[in-house]
Each structure stands twice: as C-alpha cells, then as structure tokens.
Design brief:
This protein is an alpha+beta fold. Helix content is 39%, strand content 24%. A hairpin with a 2-residue loop joins strand 9 and strand 10.
Length: 296
C-alpha cells in the first residue's frame, strides 16, 4: 500500500525533473529531424527497388547491370511524386554503348536523356532544363532503354532541387512537440487523474498494443498492401481538388490522364486529413502513414 501511494502521488520536484527529461528528449528529436531535413534537397532512387526486366541487381555493389537488347525498358523506377518546381536530374553509370533514359513526369513533361558511351569510366550526366513541373506530379517514372548490344551498369539516379522536395521531418517535429506537451500536462495533472494500481496495467497494455500495430508504419516506411497505391491516389486527388478550390472535392483532377474522375463514389471524409498534410509539402507516403497510425 505504501508503494502504491508513492506511485499515485508525485511531488513537485519529481514533476519538474520528469518535464526536463521530456523537453531534453524533444530537443534531441528536433536536432536529428533538422539534420535529416537538410538532406531533402535531394532524392536518390533505391536501385534495389526498381522494376527489372532485362537487367540484374547486384546487392554487393548496389548497381544494376545488363547486356540484353530489348525494345522495352530494361529497368524502371516505381512511381514517384514531386511538388511543383524545377529539378536537376543526375545519372551515374558505366557503359560501352549509347543508351537512353526516358523520363515520364506527367502528361506535360516527357523527355529523353542521352547516356553516351563512357568506355570503362563512370560518367555522370545531368539535365537541369527539362524536369520542370508547374503542377507537380504523383506518377512520375524513369525508364532505362537499351536497344543495341553492349554493356551498361547503372550506379545512381538522383533528383535534386534548390528547395526542400518534401517536409516530412518538420511533421515529425510537430508531432513530437504535441506529444511532449501532452506528457508535460499529464505530469503536472498526475495527482488529479487518480490513477490506481488497477488502472496502470490497462494503460500500459493499450500503449504496447498501439505501438505493435503501428510498427510497420513507423520503422520501415510505407507498407505497400494490395490497395495502398490506390488509396495514395485518392489522397492526392483530394489534395489537388482542394488546390483547385473544390470544397468538398467532387472531381479528382489526377485521374484519367488529368481529365478527372468522380471522387464521391467512395467515402473520403477521413482522407482529408492526409490531403491537408499534402498542403504542407508532406510526401504522399508519409501522409498515408500518418493517416494509418491515426486510424489504428
């Protein structure tokens, strides 16, 4: 009984120490997030996640290589999203033939980048003119073509900008701030909450279950299920509809090659939460993850 009384009543000194620890942890999160946010001027594609048709990925070197000849692309990125702006595309490779990289950003931005033979040396080709997106994109793709015999080894594909491509880490800081404020308020109102030894196990069990359920969305990026990309497209449709001034959004401008499609055929009320996050330049995968965590 004495131990329970000590747990259920906390003096002012302990509350101040607890609050100081919470603030210290919050500052650590801020420092890490600000450091990572400075890297969002550049987006590098994970070559291991690319769609490979007539090429192979070497996990030892992290490169994609091919000697095949094909009328179709030999390797392609997954769909990517970019906010409005101008970008610089950089490709590092090694090749003994001339090849071509096709960039399909959206209907208004499709162009090719010639990759001349490097003859045994790693070469980097940049394009700072063509990748201009007045409206942004949510379905960009980059494909590598090789229509003649020879060898090519792809080392890196990078898109960079003079502004932050996305602001996901600022969102982390905002959430960390809200959690820190909530914990400090709970700390100072601890005595009035009248928590007992019977209540604590339920609180701990709830927090543990909530953490376990959300592990895929916290630790390993976006968890792609069967309909994940479809839901992301709905989120982007709501966002673009809001940008166009639709309240509520009836037509998703990003559907049917930007001709639009009805958005009222499915319930979208709670999807406005990640759609609003897109207003603050939060990437689609992160907005989707936040939505799934809130739902869970």
């Amino acid at each position: 009984m004495t131990l329970i009384k000590k747990i259920t009543r906390v003096n002012l000194k302990a509350k101040l120490i607890c609050s100081a620890i919470i603030i210290f942890l919050f500052l650590i999160v801020c420092a890490i997030s600000f450091k990572l946010q400075t890297k969002t001027y550049q987006y590098s594609f994970e070559l291991k996640d690319m769609e490979l048709k007539s090429s192979d990925y070497d996990p030892m070197t992290g490169h994609i290589s091919s000697e095949a000849v094909s009328d179709d692309f030999i390797a392609g990125t997954n769909a990517f999203s970019l906010p409005p702006g101008g970008y610089v595309l950089s490709i590092s490779y090694l090749s003994d033939i001339n090849t071509e990289l096709l960039v399909q950003a959206n209907n208004d931005c499709v162009f090719s980048v010639l990759l001349p033979a490097s003859y045994g040396e790693v070469m980097t080709v940049t394009d700072s003119v063509n990748l201009v997106l007045p409206k942004g994109t949510d379905r960009g793709r980059i494909k590598l073509y090789k229509k003649e015999g020879g060898y090519i080894e792809l080392h890196d594909i990078t898109i960079s900008s003079d502004h932050h491509i996305y602001r996901d880490y600022y969102l982390i800081i905002a959430f960390a701030g809200l959690i820190a404020m909530a914990l400090i308020i709970i700390t100072f109102l601890y005595d009035s909450l009248k928590l007992t030894s019977i209540t604590w196990p339920y609180i701990v069990a709830f927090l543990v279950v909530m953490l376990i359920v959300n592990i895929p969305y916290i630790t390993s990026g976006t968890y792609f299920e069967i309909d994940t990309q479809g839901h992301m497209k709905r989120i982007e449709g709501l966002y673009q509809g809001l940008v166009d001034g639709q309240i509520p959004v009836l037509i998703g401008p990003n559907y049917a090659n930007e001709y639009g499609e009805l958005m009222v055929l499915q319930p979208n009320l709670f999807l406005y939460i990640p759609a609003i996050l897109r207003y603050f330049n939060v990437s689609i995968p992160t907005a989707y993850n936040v939505y799934m965590i809130l739902v869970n």
